[in-house]
Write a structure and sequence with these properties.
The protein is mainly beta and about 170 residues long. Strands 1, 3, 5, 6, 7 and 9 form a six-stranded antiparallel sheet that branches. It is globular, with a radius of gyration of 18 Å.
């Protein structure tokens, strides 16, 4: 009986995590018009549930923070699979981002349906407004009601002050 259970369970376990961290965390830098305490940006990355089961998002961590802190994390729906949230330097939202932002919800407990996608949006504040600030890599913790897992994406995204240039990092 024990061997049969082990065989049955091994058939249920996939070698690849069902949640894939996609766009947004590409190596890029944007200039923001804000300085001082308002020196921040909203950084979005798309995650896709590539399984037939819903997954529940639990936590997000930056692999590395550069001159930055994460103040808040939200999940926004994608109205089109081709367009993620992207980057909003200084929280200057485009009309498309405003629509998504109004529908945001807290990350912990957010459900991503089977074969569905959402954008995870990080509100990132710079510790020193005179220098580049951003994140390098992202790890997403989630579960499907039975198992917990993590998925990671690499790349870096950040922002600089109005007088700086992205290449000066």
């Amino acid at each position: 009986m024990g061997a049969a259970v082990a065989v049955a369970l091994s058939g249920c376990v996939s070698s690849t995590p069902p949640l894939t961290v996609y766009g947004g965390l590409v190596d890029r830098c944007v200039e923001t018009r804000t300085t001082g305490e308002d020196y921040m940006a909203l950084l979005g990355t798309t995650v896709v549930n590539e399984s037939s089961r819903s997954v529940i998002l639990r936590d997000v961590r930056a692999v590395e923070l550069v001159n930055a802190s994460i103040e808040a994390v939200s999940v926004v729906p994608l109205h089109s699979p081709e367009s993620g949230f992207g980057v909003a330097p200084g929280a200057d939202l485009t009309p498309e981002q405003r629509v998504m932002w109004r529908e945001r919800q807290p990350l912990d407990g957010a459900v991503v349906g089977p074969y569905d996608a959402v954008s995870i949006v990080l509100q990132v504040h710079a510790e020193d407004y005179r220098d580049y600030a951003g994140i390098e890599g992202l790890t997403v913790k989630y579960d499907d009601g039975w198992f917990s897992a993590t998925s990671s994406g690499d790349g870096a995204v950040g922002f600089v002050a109005p007088w700086a240039h992205c290449g000066s990092r």
